[in-house]
């Protein structure tokens, strides 16, 4: 009997302790953003959690396409998606998911950006490159460039859009092939019609060995390659270059995808993605001004908390900061 009582007391204590642990557990809000937002979101997360100690914001960065695929393809329980291309949300998420609802049916645009060329003091011709001659510098045989994977990351396919627009708008025939196209086998060729220009990307986008082009899955890996001297110049967003303390050269407004007034110029260029999985959602990425957007998936486990964090996040981006994309 005494032994039974001791066991009962132990079980009661265990229950009380366990109950206390449960009540002290934090509510986890899972946020999957574009990699270009990792720096500002780290600050925003810290500020939010200081105000809400019962909330644990967990951030996992991906390229924008990969961020959405965490929900649409992998069916992970994500509370908030934040991407660097607002058009990806309707294109990829406005369709029915396993729960019978669309993955989402709304999004909130909140920031803008522009493409730049990031470089370091050790980059070839670092003291010579300017906004006026950047495309001529990149055309030189001894200059190595890098960009992120266009089938995973918005900055990747935007690099192709930028180079097509540069060839057209800067009156530089053959520029795309010299800087990018000739580094692949077979060559990537710009198709030109009266309506505009386009490039079709293969399923496997792999530069030839010892070519001037390097590709990484995300910009964080690309910038590591830049800082280690593996490449001379990286196509990335202006906010990222500033946030990482890198030197950068601005591109002309007619090619940098950063000016709303040039929207009718940007849409001259289109990139067609080769992966079969894009067939049902549209595989074309048309040139347009860069706009960031956020949405909460329809099956988000912590919708209410995600809405609260989204409101806080939008206010933070409206105020801005070092490494933040410009507010709309």
TrEMBL record:
Top-rank taxon: Archaea
Pfam annotation, one family: SBP_bac_11
Gene Ontology MF terms in the entry: molybdate ion binding; tungstate binding
GO biological process, any: molybdate ion transport
Transmembrane feature ranges: none
PROSITE patterns the record matches: PROKAR_LIPOPROTEIN (PS51257)
SUPFAM superfamilies linked to this entry: Periplasmic binding protein-like II
Annotated NCBIfam families: tungstate_WtpA (TIGR03730)
Family per record: Belongs to the bacterial solute-binding protein 1 family. WtpA subfamily.
Protein name: Tungstate/molybdate binding protein
Organism: Methanocorpusculum labreanum (strain ATCC 43576 / DSM 4855 / Z)
């Amino acid at each position: 009997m005494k032994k039974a009582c001791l066991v009962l007391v132990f079980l009661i204590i265990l229950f009380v302790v366990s109950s206390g642990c449960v009540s002290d557990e934090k509510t986890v809000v899972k946020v999957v953003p574009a990699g270009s937002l990792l720096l500002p979101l780290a600050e925003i997360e810290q500020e939010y959690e200081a105000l809400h100690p019962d909330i644990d914001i967990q951030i996992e960065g991906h390229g924008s396409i990969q961020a959405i695929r965490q929900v649409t393809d992998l069916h992970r329980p994500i509370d908030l998606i934040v991407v660097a291309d607002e058009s990806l949300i309707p294109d990829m998420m406005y369709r029915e998911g396993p729960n019978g609802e669309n993955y989402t049916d709304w999004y909130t645009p909140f920031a803008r950006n522009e493409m730049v060329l990031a470089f370091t003091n050790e980059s070839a011709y670092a003291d010579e490159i300017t906004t006026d001659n950047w495309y001529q510098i990149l055309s030189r045989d001894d200059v190595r460039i890098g960009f992120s994977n266009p089938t995973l990351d918005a900055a990747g396919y935007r690099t192709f859009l930028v180079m097509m627009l540069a060839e057209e708008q800067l009156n530089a025939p053959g520029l795309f092939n010299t800087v990018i196209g000739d580094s692949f086998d077979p060559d990537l060729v710009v198709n030109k019609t009266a309506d505009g220009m386009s490039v079709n990307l293969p399923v496997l986008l792999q530069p030839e060995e010892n070519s001037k082009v390097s590709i990484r899955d995300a910009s964080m890996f690309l910038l590591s390659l830049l800082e280690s001297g593996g490449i001379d110049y990286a196509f990335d967003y202006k906010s990222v270059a500033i946030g990482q303390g890198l030197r950068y050269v601005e591109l002309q407004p007619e090619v940098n995808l950063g000016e709303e007034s040039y929207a009718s110029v940007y849409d001259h260029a289109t990139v067609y993605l080769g992966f079969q999985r894009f067939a049902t959602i549209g595989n074309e990425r048309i040139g347009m001004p860069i706009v960031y957007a956020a949405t909460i998936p329809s099956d988000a486990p912590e919708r209410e908390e995600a809405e609260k964090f989204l409101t806080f996040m939008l206010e933070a981006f409206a105020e801005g900061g070092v490494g933040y994309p410009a507010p709309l």
